[in-house]
Amino acid sequence: MNTVASQDFEDWPDWPLRDTRYMSYGSTATEDSEASLLSISRFQPPPSPTTSISPTVSDKGKIAPPVDVVRVNLSPCVTISFVRKTRLFRMQYSYIDIVKELNGTLKHLVLGGSNGSHSTFLHDFSGTRLPIPHLEYPRLSDDTPHRVSFLDEQTVQTANTSFSTQLSYTFDHWDDCVRFQELLLASKLVFIAGIAEAKSKGRGEECISQNLRLLRGRHERLTLLFFANSQRKERKRYVSVPLNCIDKIDVPKKTSKPVLLYLRPNFEILAEMKVLYFYFLDDDERKRFGEIIAHHIER
């Protein structure tokens, strides 16, 4: 896997999309996946008080850098799933510690508060671009499974053993799932809805049965995010569309008609797509999305 310096996605010169590639590990979601600029590591103010840990001296005599830790208590727990030597493991934890350096770079997640049958679990991000949390099911209601996975294998550590594996988090409550996404994306989740299909005028079918997320990042910038799982000629990847790159929106009165976003050719990917067509699974969400986008692009 490529080693990439962690940065806020808004600081990249070719935001919103960068051709930075990950090595594929045969993900269940895609054979070939590609890193997106929304793989980010800088945090907004944390949701709970931050604990600053002073530098410590390691076994080799080197001083470890200070870190900030934010604990997210879950209600009641999160279930993680992974495969190790062909065996499927499922473990439950009641909190997640978000450990980051003082400059905002995320180091790792530490899961703890188990029932005592297993040790703490570490999800490591050192030296890599942070992955985008991938929602496995289109969001329809509170009954939708709150399962988050990643397109590439993740580095984890348990019982003093470090290895790479396909990893997923299943939350009991949607609010916990939202907080988890926001912490990894360093953004506020303003809107999310399930879409049956997305198409573009220039590239054809973009995705089927996915989620459309609207994120508010640093400097109050708003960005649309969806997973383009239908493109056959290139690696499947996340596509981000800044709202200031949307020229206008058309929300037809007829429920069966898609919402149309007319894009400004600010970036190569947007120039290729030209117009985006979103078919929503829920008509109320379709209308709400139209109101939100229209409000912001008319300001």
Question: What does this protein structure show overall?
Answer:
This protein has two domains: 31-186, Roll (PH-domain like); 189-297, PH-domain like. It starts with 32 loop residues before the first strand and ends with a helix. Mean pLDDT is 79; it is low at 1-52 and 54-59. 11% of the residues lie in helices and 43% in strands. The strands form three sheets. Strands 2, 5, 6, 7, 8, 9, 10, 11, 12 and 13 form a ten-stranded antiparallel β-sheet that branches. It has an eight-stranded mixed β-sheet with strand order 1-17-16-15-14-20-19-18. It is mainly β and 299 residues long. The protein is built from three helices and 20 strands. It has helices at residues 174-185, 268-273, 283-297; strands spanning 33-34, 51-53, 56-57, 63-64, 67-84, 87-101, 106-112, 121-124, 134-135, 146-149, 154-158, 161-165, 167-171, 188-200, 204-216, 222-228, 236-242, 246-250, 259-263, 275-280.
What tags apply to this protein structure?
299 residues; mainly beta; PH-domain like; 2 domains; ten-stranded antiparallel sheet; eight-stranded mixed sheet; 3 helices; 11% helix
Question: Could you list the spans in which at least 5 consecutive residues all have pLDDT below 50?
Answer: 1-52, 54-59
Just name the CATH architecture of the largest domain: Roll
What is the overall silhouette?
Answer: elongated
What is the top-level CATH class of the largest domain? Mainly Beta
- Helix count equals 3
Q: Into which percentage range does the β-strand content fall?
A: 35-45%
Distance between the termini: 42 Å
Given helix and strand content, the structural type is: mainly beta
CATH topology description of the largest domain? PH-domain like
Order of helices and strands: EEEEEEEEEEEEEHEEEEEEHEH
Largest sheet properties: 10 strands, antiparallel
- How helical, in percent, are the residues? 10-25%
Q: What is the number of domains?
A: 2
**Rg value:** 20 Å
Average pLDDT, rounded to a whole number, is 79
Number of strands: 20
